[in-house]
Design goal:
about 45% helix, 7-stranded mixed beta sheet, 2-enoyl-CoA Hydratase, Chain A, domain 1, alpha/beta, about 15% strand, 10 helices, about 300 residues
Length: about 300
């Protein structure tokens, strides 16, 4: 073979062929992240997981060396989790960027909505969805089979059984309290406390954007408290881009045919193809943690 016919080392991956082949999907995602960063002069990080305490550290890993003078974009998919963890993530993100934009290709519910509320901008497509700021609790003694249940649903279940029979908590009752299974008195009280904290969390999340004035925080909290806390009947209640704009949030309504959303959607499609068994995803152009917690967004 002539020297000029040989593949240049500059055109080949730095990893060995087999190592690179096993991680080809990861490298393809990270290349799209890098292309997006070059196109929009920002740092792009991806988080697809429940919002939980250990996730704060994994999120910190994605932004620990971010340039505070550069914009930060977060592609977020999450069904919710711990509101306190979400507020910590907002503070961490805002301390390392000029402006924070949260991109929601699908859903950012509950605690994930709190994370969005602390951003400068929220980018949403036609099918993007935020959700009620209703706290959730993990129910079940067995860690592998625990499920997240909305605090409102826990309180409603107890109230329902109590309304069926005055002696609902007696063994002889046709609707005894033990029908609630893992919902103990302690869990019930935790649900009540978490629900009472929702309004404060809403305000703290909004304050996460350092460029908001106290008056703006008060106005947004007033506009959001009704639809996101008081009037939302279920955890799955919808809150789209137009609802967010009506409440006064800075929402970027993505053009589905526009270049930016097309790039985001191609990237999101690669994460969606991983399926729920992939677990949590924390990724940027250099770091990749897939299946770290198994909490899947």
């Amino acid at each position: 073979m002539a020297v000029e016919d040989r593949e240049s080392p500059l055109d080949t991956p730095s990893q060995s062929p087999i190592y690179h082949a096993y991680r080809a999907a990861q490298y393809a995602r990270q290349e799209l992240i890098s292309r997006y960063e070059r196109e929009y002069s920002c740092r792009l990080v991806v988080m697809i997981d429940r919002i939980i305490g250990p996730g704060v550290t994994m999120f910190e890993e994605l932004i620990y060396d971010a340039d505070a003078g550069q914009d930060l974009h977060l592609l977020l998919q999450s069904r919710g989790g711990d509101g306190e963890a979400a507020i910590r993530m907002v503070r961490a993100a805002q301390s390392r960027c000029r402006e924070l934009t949260v991109i929601v290709p699908d859903q950012a519910k509950s605690a994930a909505t709190l994370l969005c509320l602390g951003a400068h901008h929220i980018m949403m497509g036609a099918s993007s969805d935020l959700g009620p700021v209703d706290p959730q609790l993990r129910i079940g003694a067995d860690a592998e089979n625990q499920q997240w249940v909305a605090a409102k649903d826990i309180i409603a279940a107890v109230d329902y059984l109590k309304g069926l029979s005055e002696d609902w908590d007696e063994p002889s009752s046709p609707f005894p309290g033990w029908l609630l299974g893992d919902i103990t008195a302690i869990v019930f009280q935790e649900a009540r406390s978490a629900l009472a904290r929702s309004s404060d969390q809403l305000g703290e999340a909004l304050k996460g954007n350092p460029d908001r004035t106290p008056r703006e925080v008060t106005r947004l909290k007033r506009n959001l408290k009704g639809p996101m806390i008081e009037k939302a009947a279920t955890h799955g209640a919808l809150f789209g881009a137009d609802d967010a704009i009506k409440a006064g949030l800075s929402v970027i309504k993505a053009d589905p045919a526009g270049k930016q959303w097309q790039m985001i959607w191609r990237l999101w499609a690669k994460y969606f193809s991983l399926g729920p068994r992939a677990g949590g995803v924390y990724e940027n152009a250099k770091i990749s943690q897939v299946g770290f917690f198994g909490g899947r967004g």
